[in-house]
Design goal:
The complex is a heterotrimer of chains A (about 260), B (about 725) and C (about 80). With about 260 residues, chain A is of the alpha/beta class. Chain A has helices spanning about 35-45, 85-95, 105-115, 170-180, 240-260; strands at about 20-25, 50-55, 65, 100-105, 120-125, 130-140, 155-160, 165-170, 185-190, 205-210, 215-220. Chain A has a single domain (about 20-260), classed as 3-Layer(aba) Sandwich (Rossmann fold), CATH 3.40.50.880. Helix content of chain A is about 25%, strand content about 25%. Chain A has a 9-stranded mixed β-sheet, sandwiched between helices. A two-stranded antiparallel sheet of chain A has the order 5-8. With about 725 residues, chain B is of the alpha+beta class. Chain B folds into 3 domains: about 10-45 and about 190-365, PurM-like C-terminal domain (Phosphoribosyl-aminoimidazole Synthetase, Chain A, domain 2), CATH 3.90.650.10; about 55-190 and about 430-560, 60s Ribosomal Protein L30, Chain: A (2-Layer Sandwich); about 560-730, PurM-like C-terminal domain (Phosphoribosyl-aminoimidazole Synthetase, Chain A, domain 2), CATH 3.90.650. Chain C has 3 helices and 3 strands; from the N terminus they run E-H-E-H-E-H. A 3-stranded antiparallel β-sheet of chain C has the order 2-1-3. The chains are: A alpha/beta (about 260), B alpha+beta (about 725), C alpha+beta (about 80).
Chain lengths: ~260, ~725, ~80
């Protein structure tokens, strides 16, 4: 699994180094947390970030894509199922194959799973009700572009808000996901241990978030954009975006170094 | 509806004989069947407020910062320089009784559109719910269905439910109350209106297609529910689509951005008829409408069906001539239907065409000119007798046991299992989430300011003394807002009562409105709009007259928000505000003694205003560690809640002179204008001086600390571990 | 020529059916006895008649269902009407 090596196709398009990474926040009909994500990326962190409409087919020039939370297409058919067929998701697939960073939050995670960019599926919460509350997560991997600024095994607090957040994968797939170390976040108690009570939705293996094999696509149910400012009750989510930014700058720096 | 063989057509349309004659006089002729049905719906109680309009005039609507008062789709008040908030409360009681999920969901949809009609982006919802006791499976089913419906709609559209209340009383069994409030934000210079102007301006229909939903729904809301209603009334309940609701919000805000929209209104009760009539009447103009251009979901709809359909998620707009393309594009980009369906005319007549056939031709002001009715008000003897019941002989229970019973009482118990079904964090504004006295939202547009919101109703108190109940609801809502550190600036009120044609309900309505009016006048908080729901009654009887008050407050600095929980050992615990309490109408009297009787305390409004002021200053000066409004269950319950919220105990002494003669009165008696605070010891003197200068009583009770709630009484002690208080308070059913 | 079909979809046996459980609990609360309640969904659609079963299977596999977690059954619409 690549943790920092760059693919040849990561050459900056224009041939010039681009020091400020550009974030795309995708907007589907029914997305709700798009404005929230933009607020954090642009308003709080000062990054270059903009909205990208679901009909867009070209993600040229972007370094990272955020699929935000919400109820794209009203959760019709299955959450994320219809959005997964949109032009922008086809573009996201190509973008990911070329090594770009993609993070899907909540409904965004559902879209990535439906699009086959991540393994597994999300189904109705164990108690069959929507749950909006803070949970504890254990950071299983601190060597991904999304978690470099966390410590391995660190316990963090983030809010969830979903009705269909129970992660499911058939036994063979689940084993593979674990063996390949694709799990990035797990639901735990305050003491860092997994227990049924600490699992808000019944996710298998308490999985709250995972990456693809290549490590450049992350999906998670908790909302890091809701915990990026102290006034809202916690800041543990901020470092996820900061990790991405740092990784992208490092990549650009290395690429610029090679082109000299 | 029963067989119509012998019923006159005007009665079938929902009109009284005198109303029909009034219609004929206004038109100078008989209305045709389509027009008759339109009057039937527009002149229903639900749409026309025939029994309540005369009373609502008594509510003070003016105040500094009020940009739009009652009469518009929502009230608008300035909350920061250049920034305004739109707010409104609506009820959806009758539909929720028949279909709790969809009834509540469409209630949310409707109130969102009212706020959207003012040009505001909805940023918060609050719900005030009342049901029969949860031991009754039917009541529990209604509650769970309503909560699921609100959750479904609110979560899908991405508007957080940040606060609310849920209470249970027998009288609501067959008539649950579902009141939902919405707050939106907009630039103060861009408040939209609904008055149609500009002859020749196109009228645009936008949103979902029109089907046969809720035909006659507004008339349905004006009838009492009978026990057999469930099946036949189901066709009168609309089904909403929150996805379409979300698209409508985004598309409408985008359309407004173009600057081409002259006026807009959502299509709610009475559908396109109401929107077209009200918009025309307000603008003093007329309209031509072409029904064949209205996007339809079903085949073979008659003109009257299109006119009265209550299909959800639709708006009617008047657009600047020549610029309709911009507006249509905005809606279509979001996948919604948008069509030019007519135009404004200088001639103040509403002309509706179906193809080339003229099907309706009448002055729109006639549709909005329903009569008002004054029913003689009469206080029922039984009510007065109930107030005068002598409670002095009541046995006194063990106070610790009574406290635990109260904490577990469904109306007091923690509502966490409910509010965690609502996304209360979306939009990143929620600084103080549900569970406290009021919600606090930050104003991203005007940092570090914020707004506080609270919804409070008063049923039992209003039943015993309507004036006291109306005033108390206002007092509690403003106090909750002040407790978190904000200054109340506006109110929207929802009134829920029984059949207004009965003199006793007329008496209740008058009392409740007068109580609200007087309180708002003295507290200088205007009522910028509201809602009235009548006929909440069945064979089992009427609901308690239940005013529901939503208070909006402003905060200079959201980082100075004050919570309800005790926090630090050594902090001083004190009671600030009124000493006057009563067992009359109290939660304790009902839960422990099974009685609803006695005389509730009438608010001292001047003292209340001083209390609000003290709290505002104290919060500004950072003097308070915690602040908790004392309401259901009185002082003891408030102490217990503050301990549980803070995870720490307290040691308090109730002195003989404060205590009086009855333990239960001191511990569980209820009255307005009372707040439990905890103050860092080094700030207490300054706080005491602040209270003294303001003439607000302050009573030192004790200190925060330990892991128990210890109350020393003149003749004994109440000691309950905080852990036990918590498990009682978390016993949600 | 066209074919009208109904597709009935349920979660695979190994997947927790939280809605099914909630419905069962609700039924019991109303005093109605039922066990092993599962909640699924049904689609009705019209497809060209030639190779219709193949076509419908493709629709199911690619979009109407999530093959990872759902099983489906295809019914001819006349078949259903006859019941």
């Amino acid at each position: 699994m690549s943790t920092g090596a760059f693919l040849e196709s990561d050459r900056p398009r224009s041939g010039l180094p681009t020091p400020d990474p550009r974030f795309a926040v995708v907007v589907f009909p029914g997305s709700n947390c798009d404005r929230d994500c933009l607020h954090v990326l642009r308003g709080v962190l000062g990054y270059r970030a903009e909205f990208v409409w679901h009909e867009e087919e070209d993600l040229e020039g972007f370094d990272a894509v955020v699929l935000p939370g919400g109820f794209s297409y009203g959760d019709y058919l299955r959450p994320g199922a219809v959005a997964a067929t949109s032009p922008v998701v086809r573009a996201v697939r190509r973008f990911a194959e070329a090594g770009g960073l993609v993070v899907g939050i909540c409904n965004g995670f559902q879209v990535l799973l439906e699009a086959g960019l991540l393994p597994g599926a999300l189904v109705r919460n164990r108690g069959a009700t929507f749950r909006c509350e803070w949970v504890h997560l254990r950071v299983e991997r601190a060597d991904t572009p999304f978690t470099a600024l966390y410590a391995p095994g660190e316990v963090v607090r983030m809010p969830i808000a979903h009705g269909d957040g129970r992660y499911h994968a058939p036994p063979g797939m689940l084993e593979e996901v674990e063996q390949r170390g694709q799990v990035v976040f797990r639901y735990v108690g305050r003491d860092g241990r997994t227990t049924p009570d600490a699992n808000p939705n019944g996710s298998l293996h308490h999985i709250a978030g995972l990456v693809n094999r290549e490590g450049n696509v992350l999906g998670l149910m908790p909302h890091p954009e809701r915990c990026s400012e102290p006034v809202l009750g916690g800041q543990d989510g901020r470092r996820l975006f900061e990790s991405m930014d740092r990784w992208l700058r490092e990549r650009a720096r290395l690429a610029a170094g090679r082109t000299r | 509806m029963t067989a119509v063989t012998q019923i006159p057509e005007w009665e079938a349309a929902g009109l009284r004989r005198e109303e029909y004659e009034r219609v004929c006089a206004l038109l100078g002729r008989r209305p045709n069947p389509t027009e008759l049905r339109m009057f039937g719906v527009m002149w229903s109680e639900h749409c026309a407020y025939k029994h309540s309009r005369p009373y609502l005039k008594r509510l003070p609507a003016a105040g500094p910062g009020v940009l739009r008062g009652p009469g518009e789709n929502a009230g608008v008040v300035e909350v920061a320089p250049g920034l305004a908030a739109a707010l409104k409360v609506e009820s959806h009681n009758h539909p929720s009784a028949v279909d709790p999920f969809h009834g509540a969901a469409t209630g949310v949809g409707g109130i969102l559109r009212d706020v959207l009609s003012m040009g505001a982006r909805p940023v918060a919802l609050l719900d005030s719910l009342r049901f029969g006791p949860p031991e009754d499976p039917q009541s529990r089913r209604l509650r769970d269905g309503v909560v699921a419906g609100i959750s479904h709609y609110g979560n899908s559209v991405g508007v957080p439910v940040v606060g609310g209340e849920v209470l249970y009383e027998d009288c609501y069994r067959a008539n649950p109350l579902v009141n939902v409030a919405c707050v939106g934000l907009l630039p103060a210079s861009r408040v939209s209106g609904s008055a149609a102007v500009g002859p020749g301006n196109p009228v645009v229909y936008a949103g979902a297609r029109t089907g046969r939903d809720g035909i006659g729904g507004a008339a349905f809301a004006s009838e009492q529910l009978e026990e057999t209603s469930a099946e036949s009334d189901r066709s009168a309940v609309q089904i909403g689509d929150p996805f379409a609701g979300k698209l409508l919000i985004e598309a409408t805000l985008e359309a407004l951005e173009t600057g081409a929209v002259v006026a807009l209104q959502d299509m709610g009760a009475a559908g396109i008829t109401c929107a077209a009539a009200e918009m025309s009447a307000r603008g003093g103009v007329g309209m031509v409408l072409h029904l064949d251009r209205v996007p339809r979901r079903e085949r073979g709809m008659t003109p009257v069906e299109v006119l009265l359909s209550e299909s959800q998620e639709r708006m009617l707009l008047v657009v600047e001539r020549g610029r309709e393309g911009e507006v249509l594009r905005a809606y279509r980009r979001w996948g919604l239907h948008a069509e030019v369906v007519g135009q404004v005319t200088a001639d103040p007549v509403l002309r509706v065409y179906d193809g080339s056939t003229l099907v309706v031709e009448l002055p729109p002001v006639a549709l909005t000119d329903a009569p008002t009715y004054r029913v003689p008000e009469e206080e029922p003897q039984a009510r007065r007798a109930l107030r005068e019941v002598d409670l002095s002989g009541l046995p006194e229970p063990d106070p610790a046991q009574a406290l635990l019973r109260l904490l577990q009482s469904p109306s007091v118990v923690s509502k966490r299992p409910i509010y965690t079904q609502y996304d209360h964090m979306v939009q990143l504004r929620t600084v103080l989430p549900p569970g406290g006295d009021a919600a606090v939202l930050r104003l991203l547009e005007a940092p570090p300011r914020g707004i506080a919101l609270s919804v409070d109703g008063s049923g039992r108190i209003s039943y015993l003394d309507p004036w006291a109940g109306g005033a108390a609801a206002v007092c509690e809502a403003t106090l909750n807002v002040a407790c978190v550190g904000a200054k109340p600036v506006a109110i929207t009120d929802g009134l829920n009562l029984g059949n207004p044609e009965r003199p006793e309900v007329a008496w209740e309505l008058a009392g409740v409105v007068d109580g609200i009016a007087e309180a708002c006048r003295v507290l200088q908080v205007p009522v910028v709009g509201g809602n009235v729901s009548l006929y909440n009654e069945s064979e089992r009887g009427a609901v308690y007259p239940t005013p529901v008050v939503v208070c909006l407050g402003v905060m200079e600095d959201v980082t100075r928000t004050v919570g309800t929980g005790f926090a630090a050992a050594g902090d001083v615990v004190a009671l600030v505000g009124s000493d006057r309490v009563s067992l009359g109408g109290s939660e304790y009297l009902r839960v422990v003694h099974g009685k609803v009787a006695g005389t509730p305390v009438r608010p001292d409004l001047v003292l209340h205003r001083r209390l609000l002021d003290v709290l505002a200053r104290a919060a500004e000066g950072g003097m308070l560690r915690s602040s908790h409004d004392i309401s259901e269950g009185g002082l003891a319950v408030a102490l217990a809640e503050a301990c549980v919220a803070g995870g720490i105990g307290a040691r308090c002494t109730l002195s003989p002179e404060f205590f009086g003669t009855r333990a239960d009165l001191a511990l569980f008696g209820e009255g307005p204008s009372r707040v439990l605070v905890s103050v860092p010891p080094e700030r207490y003197e300054a706080f005491a001086e602040l209270c003294a200068r303001a003439g607000v009583p302050l009573r030192l009770l004790g200190y925060v600390g330990g892991d128990q709630l210890q109350l020393r009484l003149p003749d004994g002690e109440v000691i309950v571990p905080v852990a036990e208080l918590r498990s009682a308070w978390e016993a949600y059913r | 020529m066209n074919k009208r079909v109904r597709v009935v979809v349920f979660l695979k046996p190994g997947v927790l059916d939280a809605q099914g459980q909630a419905v069962q609990t609700g039924l019991r609360a109303l005093g109605l006895e039922a066990s092993e309640v599962r909640v699924g969904k049904a689609f009705e659609l019209t497809v060209p008649e030639d190779r219709w079963r193949e076509r419908v299977r493709e629709l199911c596999e690619r979009f109407l269902t999530n093959p990872l977690i759902e099983d489906y059954e295809i019914y001819e619409r006349e078949e259903v009407a006859a019941r």
